[in-house]
Automatic annotation (TrEMBL), chain A:
Part of a membrane-bound complex that couples electron transfer with translocation of ions across the membrane. Its main location: membrane. Its EC number is 7.-.-.-. It is a multi-pass membrane protein. This is Ion-translocating oxidoreductase complex subunit D.
Automatic annotation (TrEMBL), chain B:
Its EC number is 7.-.-.-. It comes from the Bacteria. It is an enzyme of class 7 (translocase). The gene is rsxC. Belongs to the 4Fe4S bacterial-type ferredoxin family. RnfC subfamily. Its cofactor is [4Fe-4S] cluster. InterPro entries: 4Fe4S_Fe-S-bd, 4Fe4S_Fe_S_CS, Ion_transpt_RnfC/RsxC, Nuo51_FMN-bd, Nuo51_FMN-bd_sf, RnfC_N, Soluble_ligand-bd. GO terms for molecular function: 4 iron, 4 sulfur cluster binding; electron transfer activity; metal ion binding. Residues 1-20 are annotated as: Disordered. It is a peripheral membrane protein. It comes from Mariniphaga sediminis. The lineage of its organism: Bacteria, Pseudomonadati, Bacteroidota, Bacteroidia, Marinilabiliales. This is Ion-translocating oxidoreductase complex subunit C. It is found in: Cell membrane. GO terms for cellular component: plasma membrane.
Amino acid sequence: MSNLYTVSPSPHIYSDDTTRKIMYRVVYAMIPALLWSVFVLGVDALRVTLIAIVACLAFEYIIQKYLMKVKPSITDGSALITGILLAFNVPSGIPWWIIVIGALAAIGIGKLSFGGLGGNIFNPALVGRVFLLISFPVQMTSWPATRQSATDALTTATPLGIIKEGLVNGTPIAQISKDLPSATDMLLGNIGGSLGEISALFLIVGGLYMLIRKVITWHIPVSVIVSVAAIAAIFWLVDPQNYINPLYHILSGGLMLGAIFMATDMVTSPMTPKGQIIYGVGIGVITISIRLFGAYPEGISFAILIMNAFTPLINTYIKPKRFGGN
Amino acid sequence: MLKTFKKGGVHPPENKLSAGNPIEVLPLPASVFIPVAQHIGAPATPVVQRGDQVKTGQIIAKSSSFVSTNIHSSVSGKVKKVDFQADSSGYPKQGILIDVEGDEWVEDIDRTEELKKEFDLEGAEIIKKIQEAGIVGLGGATFPTHVKLVPPKGMKAEVLLINGVECEPYLTSDHRLMLEKADEILVGIQLLKKAMNVEKAVIGIENNKADAIQLLSQKSKEYEGIDIAVLKVKYPQGGEKQLIKAVTGREVPSGGLPIAVGAVVSNVGTAFAVYEAIQKNKPLFERVVTITGKGVAKPSNFRVRMGTPTSALVEATGGLPEDTGKIISGGPMMGRAIASLDVPVTKGTSGILLMKKEESKREEVIACIRCSRCVSACPMGLEPYLLMTLAEKQIFDRSEDNKIMDCIECGSCSYTCPSSRPLLDYIRFGKGKVGEIIRSRKK
Ligand code: SF4
Ligand code: SF4
């Protein structure tokens, strides 16, 4: 018989889940929060997102093709995710060229300098965000007011910013609370903040979708949120005069965004459930420490980047339980 | 809650296309090529020569050491030559080519269908007969059964586990055998228990075979000391260590044998072969083989004589589908791709799977996204992504520290990887090297 048959080692069948499909599921999960930000912040939110996406894809293509001389992989969905996440991490009023610089930092420094997808140690979007936060502190912290906001102000502060500033000036919590949005507004996203930070609810919806589609497991988001809440609760219970209700810590700022979409980045988080919990608690503890005692009102980006750096170590020491081991 | 093993595992589409089709007898081929090595251990030594006239069931190659088995002729006819031909490994192996003439069996084989339940033999006699009949593990491992039944010094068997799991997708030969030869299997189990001197046997069956579970649960009441464990469908539950874990909750220690936790595992096909060998005097020269695939006109289960070329099975199911891209001896997870239809059926052939061209394509390999799916899928608690990288970089000491030798080559990692990384290919390479290093250290 002259027919040639494929001879290859087992297994001979493969699950039909692919990396591209997983990446696009992450993209779908971000859509509710994205739409909400456009609804609340207006068309500017869309402008920022589109610029960030186009810039990330373009840098990935150009650097891969002309500098690294490899086949560009812009269709795998990962640069798309970085683009949306970068947009989620900046205020909607930010000038376009700052976004482009952020995209270059994210893709160029954060991802491709490590060899590209799978090689990077730090979450690329966060590298972009922190780069911008250090280079353009003013623009990165001017949040346009939401369309529904009661005042005529052009800009607004984030809830965490209000708390930090109040406490620095010695204002008691009871006084500060008057200036804070209600918990419902925070849950829905009728507050000041970067694009992706404003609606805890829609971020949770996206997170549940990723959980159901098995893109992520519960270990990282839950351990981040629970550890932040637990520590914030202890301080609040001991000294309610100077510490705010833990609910504000959970619902405000980038905590949900970080816990659900950025800390869970597979490439930069640990492999085993146990390692993921250590990593998540580490992020939670660092985040709340920065928020309570640090100079910045928000700390989750730094916390995630710090724990990203520990991921290889966690993977080296936290092994899965071996079958038949002791 | 249904029992299963805890760690890892995957659930590929079951595709048991031939489950409803009773076992048929495959017509005798014109000639058979019977390899002398159809088992793990030393190849048997041929005891016939060109021109010899042989009968069905006659020994044609003798066991050459303790870990080896006899090989019997599966047909009657004339030995054409002692030759070399590729088996499922792809390498030419020694074997005996016989031209089939009629079907004359050795006289003392009982060819009737009558069920014989009673036996009056000592354990040692049973083991001796099993050894003479050339019985090996028919689940695919092909380890000589008589060796398994004699525990190493200082160890004692407590329970016999019978593997009726058939966790490989597509395969149905064990399933059909359980439905059609339930009593024979149960008698075989009693014989094995006697041989091992244990009181208890448990048959593990996955709950996608409800009919077999029902039948065996009912029939096993007539036999003492046989239980049925209904298991949740999960691959690789048919792996010895996973089956023991699922049924008894015990974990065979790393590097250890099942007997270390008091268990011996045998397959339902093996139990049937033991019944035939002892109650019917019939050595192992035929077995049930599933022939299946999405393009196969009539997926079937056949009783096939050893040495029958794969082509004979293919013809009996309506010929080779045109778009066949890959032919697998065994199941799709652990089976071997064979290069030609001349490859003979041997004691370890549980099925032949014909895969279409589009099914047999492998996707482009891309970067590891560290999604940890391979880690969650590994039933041995290993980190396949890491073992692959270590093998690629040839860092063998760390491969050993990370338990590469514990890998059972089940393929769950490669199956599940969304980046289509050839994890098991590299792990096999690493295992080979680490194995060499370990052996050289012992010297
Ligand atoms: S399943 Fe594949 S992509 Fe995921 S961690 Fe394992 S090797 Fe990497
Ligand atoms: S590493 Fe070995 S035991 Fe683990 S899933 Fe892969 S093939 Fe199976």
